[in-house]
Design brief:
The structure is a single chain. By secondary structure, the chain is an all-alpha fold. Helix content is 70%, strand content 0%. 51% of the residues are buried.
Length: 238
């Protein structure tokens, strides 16, 4: 249970910091927000991972992402039961974080900042433009593949980066966001997409819910391919 709670807390922090930065930056609204740019949002996600890696890494391994858990499971590093528990608590953490963001946006004098921000940016939900499902799917698949491959490689018990793994993983997530934000807002994490999509629908925009399948299927496929590739190149077998 300690591992599950750690994953819930870690995913909560990742979603709150990353999606929170995107929300208050006003990405996609033609504004500069409070000085937070796309680069700032990318670093918010990456630094959240770094912080959690060195906080809960020794407890749960700091997956805080169902795609990473799926890749670790596919690599044979954890049981199906444990992987399922990780994913459930990761989603719970993301939903709680999204609830906090929703609360901050929609409460306070004159409705908080909701009078200014009136689209999915107020929840940090992922979405893609109509007709762009294929490039969005390919982007989420490829960038998740890269991200999970880095995770599997840097955390390998024999070939990993040791104490520097958290830093490498966090900086990789920054790179992924820099490249992918213009396409899908960057998910590479089903939990991070599920929470904001729920509250976007509560707010009246159910497009992220209708497109949620892509942000679950593509990252999971990318993760399992990463596991297969790491087994091939990281194995001691000649």
């Amino acid at each position: 249970m300690k591992k599950y709670l750690a994953e819930m807390i870690g995913t909560f922090v990742l979603t709150l910091m990353g999606c929170g930065a995107a929300v208050f930056a006003g990405i996609g609204l033609g504004t500069t927000g409070y000085g937070i740019t796309t680069l700032g949002v990318a670093f918010a996600f990456g630094l959240a991972v770094v912080a959690m890696a060195y906080t809960i890494g020794n407890i749960s391994g700091c997956h805080i992402n169902p795609a990473i858990t799926f890749g670790v499971w596919a690599s044979g590093r954890m049981s199906s039961k444990e992987a399922g528990g990780y994913m459930i608590f990761q989603v719970i953490g993301a939903i709680i974080a999204s609830a906090v963001i929703y609360f901050l946006v929609h409460t306070g004098n004159e409705g908080g900042i909701s009078a200014v921000f009136n689209d999915t940016t107020t929840t940090g939900a992922n979405s893609f433009l109509p007709g762009n499902a294929i490039p969005a799917f390919v982007a989420e698949f490829i960038f998740t593949f890269i991200f999970v491959l880095v995770v599997l490689g840097t955390t390998d018990s024999k070939k990993g980066a040791g104490a520097f793994a958290g830093l490498a993983i966090g900086l990789t997530l920054v790179l992924v966001h820099i490249a992918c934000i213009p396409i899908t807002g960057t998910s590479v994490n089903p939990a991070r997409s599920i929470g904001p999509a729920i509250f976007a629908c509560i707010q009246g925009d159910c497009t992220p819910i209708s497109q949620l399948w892509l942000f679950i299927v593509a990252p999971m496929l990318g993760a399992i391919v990463s596991a297969a590739v790491w087994k091939a190149i990281g194995s001691d077998d000649k």
